[in-house]
Every structure is written in structure tokens, then in C-alpha cells.
Automatic annotation (TrEMBL):
Family matches, as InterPro entries: AMP-bd_C, AMP-bd_C_sf, AMP-binding_CS, AMP-dep_synth/lig_dom, ANL_N_sf
NCBIfam families membership: PRK08279.1
Lineage per the UniProt record: Bacteria, Bacillati, Actinomycetota, Actinomycetes, Mycobacteriales
Pfam families xref list: AMP-binding, AMP-binding_C
Keyword Cytoplasm among record annotations: no
UniProt name for this protein: Long-chain-fatty-acid--CoA ligase FadD17
Residue stretches making up the AMP-dependent synthetase/ligase domain: 51-387
Gene Ontology biological process terms, A to Z: long-chain fatty acid import into cell
């Protein structure tokens, strides 16, 4: 965890400096300010209507850039409308779901836009999922149509036939079906209220299988106004480079919202490559990009080269920038503004660094509290059953007030949503959403992100549910029981997965077979980097107390227990070696 002195307090002079930096952008900011304060759910304003308004106003302006080639707003809108007509002819209407399984490319984005123009919901599947996890996600969507990218063949082929929607298209088939369809804007788009659901974004939540969090158009508009309009502040001549998966809200809501706030261009990166990153940024003529903290650390780990400063990027937007690399990153790559933000797919508010303060997750004008918590990451109640706020500058659990002004979209599963709601927190009848995150109060409504609590940890920009990993470990023949937790690695972002396992009597662990089993059952980012073989666990009902001790012991205080580390998909697990944590921090392990 970063030391406390890297989380600076925010003072009045910081805000004044921020206001001075905002001054050149004042006209646009004034235009977007009302959208942060008041977004009527009944207003006829949605992603589709905003996009097609740009297409009508400036059809020849570039909207999507991919591999250096541009497609204009007008061209994209015509293709999107053909896609929308195709979906409509296959029974898709308001409230229906279209499942999209795709790697980053323009078709992915255009199928999403076609879906939301119809008032339907784009179910953005995570192409890293396989087998049982993927089947669960597809079943949860209950989609009428699935459109899939041929580059996702492995993920698509793992979906059982009995959970597939009635209509399934690959990209070529969908393009073929769209030929000759109308290129006019769907009439329904202008009638849709902002309260309409736009996306289902998959998140691990805190327990069990992935959950589909709901993103309404109205909540997406908060990203457009609050993050895009007031904080990122792109001009229409700017290009935002997006190397993160389009199934992430960081790309689909924050980045796309920033682009459509000004009618700018979105440059879609196929995938993140530290060695080729700046080359792709330059090829796509980007002036901004989105990040997660790990991406920035990998870029700093590269050898210095001329392209470090040969690009035109001046502003970046993302989350997880480690405080200790903030200044180094900005200086080496010539970044003028780092717009760090804090949010989550299911959370009903976000913080954003609108005032350009260093080493902060930003500012939020909406009601929240930072409260004391127990060893299990749950809010601590006093003798009267109420929660206690931490003092000024303190660290605690972030909870967000739920109200008519700030509603909660939650998950598709009402029971799963209710489990994250804290009721009667400070007064009878109040309600707060439990973020599950530990943050530090920096003053003036600013926070610094500190850690992830509870039964979820964050790794590779993804939330990993410990129960999902435990289920995969427990289904391996030689393992009788497992406990999974996240451990810190110096100079690495988030927490790496570690599993403590108890073997069945008379069984020796086969590390290679175990890794093959886990890669078959889990997304690559969820496969634990460390496996510790223990003799037994304390016999409690949930193992939570033991989990805290195991997490504190990490991989360095394991006594005589055998510890294996993940070398990669080919080599599997190997015996722990002293340089392994450094190899992970420097992106040398695991491989594949």
C-alpha cells in the first residue's frame, strides 16, 4: 500500500490553481455543468441521440480511428443505423438485450451504438471468460441476439449451445444481413428517456460468479458531463486513444463520454502493448488517452526512447495511478494534466480530478461518507447500531448515499444489489451503497484510493471475486479445501491472487496440471500468482479470520509451507524464487 505521505491533503490554494487551469475551457464547462447537477430521468436525451446529433451537425468530422484509419461521424451513423434495422428485424426492441462478444475494433462500438439507439441494452461480455463462467454470463443476459467477433472464437466456442440466444451472428454474417437496410435514424431514438438502460457491464462484485451491473443512459450522461465536460475537457479536434477493453466502463462510459461531450474522435487500440504503445498513439494522432494504473507502470518500466515525447498527448484520464509514480510519469512523457477518477460499474457516484491536483482520485459533489470498518471489510456499527465517520484526513470505507437525486442502478440481480446496500446507517430509513473500497479523506471533498476490502481484490484492472477462484481450486482433484486472498507486490498495482490450499490425504500437488485446470476455469487475470500448500485451516464457518492472517503473511512469511508461483500458461506453477515479485512488477511474469 502506498505510504500515507504520498496522499497529500488538498488545500484551498490547490483549488484556486485548478480554477485557473479551467479558465480557457470555461464556455464548454458552463455548458456541461447543469448535466452534473440536474439530469431529469424523463429527459429525451440518450447516448444514441447525442451521437446522431453530432453526426448531423458535422458528418465529415472523424469519429473512430483504428490502425491509423479514420471513419467519420456520418459514415459511422449510417452503418449504425443499418445495424439497428437488422437488430429490429430480429425482434430487438426497447428493453431487449443484445449480447456483444468482441475484442476492441470499430464494429464492437458500432453494434453497441445500434443497440442503444433502439432502447435495447448492450450486454458487454468479457472475452476473457470461458466455460462455466461464460455460460453463466450469457444466461444472465437473456439476450435476443448475440453478435460475436471471430477473434473471440475460443470464448464463443466455450458457450454451451443451450444458453445461446435465438439469433447468433458473427461479424461477417451481421454485416451481410445489414446490407441494403435503411440508413435513417431509428424513430424510437428520439422518444427514449434518459432513465432507459444502456449497458450491462460485468463485474465480479464481491462474491460468487460475475454479476451484470446496470448502466443507464442517465448515469452515462453523468460521465459525459462530470468527467468529460468538466474534467477531461477535450476540444472537437482532439482524439482520445482507448487501449482498454470496450467491455469496461473506463472505455465505454468515461472515454466515450469524454469524446461525445465535445464531438471529438475516439481512437480504438486493439489491445495494450507497453513496447508499441506510443507508436500506436502517434499512428492514431491521439492527444489524450485512458489508462489504468498498471498500464502507466508498464510504460515507465520500458527503456526510454524518442517516442516518449514525440506524441501529442497532453491529458490522460483513468484510475489507479500510484501516487509515487505520478510526477515521474507526467515528467517523462510530457503529460500536462492527469485526470484521475474513482468509480465502479455498480457505484452511484464517481470522483474525478477536475481541479488538476496531484495524487488524488478527485472531487465529488454528491453525498458520501467515509466510515470505520472491521477486520472483514464490513462497516462497523456502534452500540446504537449506527456507523461512525472517520475524522478529517482519516482512512475508512467509502459508502455512497442512495436517494431520489442519486439513485442506484445496481445489478440485474435484485438480491445481489440489496446485499451491497447499508440501511439505517446514521438515521432510520437512510440507505448507502457499500463500495467495498478503502479511501483516505484529503479534504475539500477529495479522496485518495487506498485499497479494496472484503472478498474482492483488484488485479490487472479487474475485480477478482475470491469465491470464484476458490470454486475453481476446490474443483481440482487433489485439493480438499482452499482460501483465496489478494497480496501486495511492491511496485505493482492492486493485489495479486494467492491461494492457500489443503491437499487431500495421500495426494502430492501436480503444479502443472493445477495451472492447466485453473486456466481452463478462470479468466487469465484471475488465476492466482501464488499457491501455498498448508496442513490445515482453522475450523470456522467462513474462514474469514484465517483469511486475514493468511493475507497478512502473504508470500514472504509462509514458514515451512511449500509455495508455488505462476510462471505462465506454458510452464504453469514453479517453485517460488526470490526474484519472482520483481518479475511480476516488471511484467516479466507470468507469461501468456
Amino acid at each position: 500500500m502506498p505510504s500515507s505521505d504520498t496522499h497529500n491533503a488538498v488545500g484551498f490554494t490547490d483549488l484556486i490553481r485548478g480554477v485557473v487551469k479551467m479558465a480557457p475551457h470555461a464556455p464548454n464547462m458552463i455548458k456541461h455543468a447543469p448535466g452534473l447537477i440536474h439530469r431529469p430521468p424523463e429527459a429525451k436525451r440518450t447516448i444514441g441521440s447525442i451521437f446522431q446529433k453530432h453526426a448531423a451537425s458535422h458528418p465529415d468530422r472523424p469519429f473512430i480511428r483504428f490502425d491509423g484509419r479514420s471513419i467519420t461521424y456520418g459514415e459511422v451513423n449510417r452503418r449504425v443505423n443499418r445495424y439497428a434495422a437488422t437488430l429490429a428485424d430480429n425482434g430487438v426492441g426497447r428493453g431487449d438485450v443484445v449480447a456483444i462478444l468482441s475484442k476492441n475494433n470499430p464494429t464492437d462500438l458500432m453494434v453497441m451504438l445500434a443497440t442503444v439507439k433502439l432502447g435495447a441494452v448492450a450486454g458487454m461480455l468479457n472475452y476473457n471468460q470461458r466455460g462455466k463462467v461464460m455460460a453463466h454470463s450469457v444466461s444472465l443476459l437473456d439476450a435476443k441476439v448475440l453478435v460475436h467477433d471471430p477473434d473471440c472464437a475460443e470464448a464463443f466456442d466455450s458457450i454451451p449451445a443451450d444458453v445461446l440466444p435465438p439469433q447468433v451472428f458473427d461479424f461477417a454474417g451481421f454485416d451481410s444481413a445489414a446490407q441494403g437496410r435503411t440508413e435513417s435514424d431509428p424513430a424510437v431514438t428520439a422518444t427514449l428517456p434518459a432513465s432507459t438502460k444502456a449497458f450491462y457491464i460485468f463485474t465480479s462484485g464481491t462474491t460468487g460468479m460475475p454479476k451484470a451491473s446496470v448502466m443507464s443512459h442517465n448515469r452515462w450522461l453523468a460521465n459525459l458531463s462530470g468527467i468529460g465536460g468538466l474534467a477531461v475537457r477535450l476540444k472537437h479536434s482532439d482524439t482520445m486513444y482507448v487501449p482498454l477493453p470496450l467491455y469496461h466502463n473506463n472505455a465505454l462510459s468515461v472515454s466515450l463520454g469524454s469524446v461525445l461531450a465535445s464531438g471529438a474522435c475516439i481512437a480504438i487500440g486493439r489491445s495494450f502493448s507497453a513496447s508499441k504503445f506510443w507508436d500506436d498513439v502517434i499512428l492514431n494522432r491521439a492527444t489524450a488517452f485512458c489508462y489504468i494504473g498498471e498500464l502507466c507502470r508498464y510504460l515507465l518500466a520500458q527503456e526510454e526512447k524518442p517516442t516518449d515525447r514525440r506524441h501529442a498527448v497532453k491529458v490522460i484520464i483513468g484510475n489507479g495511478m500510484r501516487p509515487e509514480i505520478w510526477d515521474e510519469f507526467a515528467e517523462r512523457f510530457g503529460i500536462e494534466r492527469i485526470v484521475e477518477f474513482y468509480g465502479a460499474s455498480e457505484l452511484n457516484l464517481a470522483f474525478v480530478n477536475a481541479f488538476s491536483v496531484k495524487r488524488t482520485a478527485g472531487f465529488c459533489p454528491l453525498p458520501y461518507k467515509i466510515v470505520e470498518y472491521d477486520d472483514h471489510g464490513e462497516p462497523r456499527r456502534d452500540e446504537k447500531g449506527r456507523l461512525t465517520e472517520v475524522g478529517k484526513g482519516g482512512t475508512g470505507l467509502l459508502i455512497a448515499e442512495i436517494s431520489e437525486r442519486v439513485p442506484l442502478d445496481g445489478y440485474t440481480d435484485a438480491d445481489a444489489t440489496e446485499k451491497k446496500v447499508i440501511r439505517d446507517a446514521f438515521t432510520d430509513g437512510d440507505a448507502y451503497f457499500n463500495s467495498g473500497d478503502l479511501v483516505r479523506d484529503q479534504g475539500f471533498a477529495h479522496i485518495a484510493f487506498v485499497d479494496r476490502l472484503g472478498d474482492t481484490f483488484r488485479w490487472k484492472g479487474e475485480n477478482v471475486a475470491t469465491t470464484e477462484v476458490e470454486s475453481a481450486l476446490d474443483s481440482f482433484d487433489g485439493i480438499a479445501q482452499s482460501v483465496v486472498y489478494g497480496v501486495e507486490i511492491d511496485k505493482a498495482d492492486g493485489r495479486a491472487g494467492m491461494g492457500a490450499v489443503k491437499l487431500r490425504d495421500g495426494v502430492d500437488l501436480d503444479p502443472k496440471k493445477l495451472s492447466e485446470h485453473l486456466y481452463d476455469h478462470l479468466p487469465a487475470y484471475a488465476v492466482p500468482l501464488f499457491v501455498r500448500v498448508v496442513d490445515d485451516f482453522e475450523q470456522t464457518s467462513t474462514f474469514k479470520n484465517r483469511k486475514v492472517e493468511l493475507r497478512d503473511e502473504g508470500y514472504a512469511k509462509t514458514g515451512d509451507d511449500a509455495v508455488y508461483v505462476l510462471a505462465g500458461r506454458d510452464k504453469g506453477y514453479v517453485d517460488f524464487y526470490a526474484d519472482y515479485p520483481d518479475d511480476v512488477a516488471n511484467a516479466k511474469a507470468p507469461k501468456g
